[in-house]
Amino acid sequence: MFDLQDGEYLIKLARNSMETYIETGKEIKPPKDAPEKLNQKCGVFTSLHTLEGNLRGCIGYPEPVFPLIRATIGAAINAATRDPRFPPVTLQELNQLLIEVTILTPPEKIEVKDPKEYPNYIEVGKDGLIVRKDFFSGLLLPQVAVDWDWDKEQFLSQCCVKAGLPPDQWVCDKDVEISKFQAELFEETEPEGQVVKRTLK
Fold first, then answer.
1. Dihedral sign, Cα of residue 80, residue 76, residue 192, residue 49
2. Which residue from 138, 135, 145, 134 is spatially nearest to 175, judged by alpha carbons?
3. pLDDT tens digits, residue range 5-60?
4. Which residues have C-beta within 8 Å of that of residue 107, sequence separation ≥ 6?
5. Residues 6+ apart with CB under 8 A from 90
6. Candidates 3.30.700.20, 3.30.310.260, 3.90.170.10, 3.30.1360.70; correct CATH number of 4-105+183-198?
7. How far apart are the C-alpha atoms of 42 and 61, rounded to whole Å?
8. 93, containing H or E segment
9. How would residue 113 be classed by pLDDT, with cut points 50, 70 and 90?
């Protein structure tokens, strides 16, 4: 579990990483005085939102392959400058964006005999999803299903779409691999302002 102080540290680190990279093109080094807790390996995503609530960038690391501090720096820079859905964020624009950091638990493959059973193992508001099929892969964070008011079946279908697959692929193809994970979310209430730990339920 990560507390609010951890979230505040990571949000500040994410913003500093983006500002420095946009200004200089250089990636900051992980702070040597970072709390030891934040050096454990974790998956993490950084999301950017406009003041109106629209997504402006979201990239991260699903698997715990890097220390959380390093992963947050990389995810923040990538969300601001390398999300293919959006043009790179400018420094002036960054001052008007809200930052969200989502820390992930390691993905857990859902084992079922019949694909129709998948919804029985998913809890909206708690689980995020990863869909994989051959070279196709798609991930949706837990908050996405809540924000769009999806039920379990819609969540599975939309994750297939995110992977570039037909929406019903999860129920008609036994070779589709579906994993779930949980997450802790921290977000700004205003740019460079108060940070809160978001509860989805």
1. positive
2. 134
3. 999 999 999 999 999 999 999 999 999 989 999 999 999 999 999 999 999 999 99
4. 43, 62, 63, 130, 179, 180, 181
5. 22
6. 3.30.700.20
7. 8
8. helix 91-94
9. very high
Q: What angle do CA 39, 188, 43 make, to 5 degrees?
A: 30
Structure-block tokens of residue 136: 């196709």
- Which one of 3.40.50.1980, 3.40.980.10, 1.25.40.10, 3.30.1490.150 gives the CATH number of domain 108-181? 3.30.1490.150
Q: Is the confidence at residue 151, as pLDDT, over 80? A: yes
Average pLDDT value over all residues in the chain: 96
pLDDT at 41: 97
Pair of tokens at residue 162: 């995110």
Q: Are 127 and 157 in contact (CB under 8 A)?
A: no
Distance CA 170, CA 168 (A): 5
Domain boundaries, the chain: 4-105+183-198, 108-181
Per-residue confidence (pLDDT) for residue 200, from 0 to 100: 85
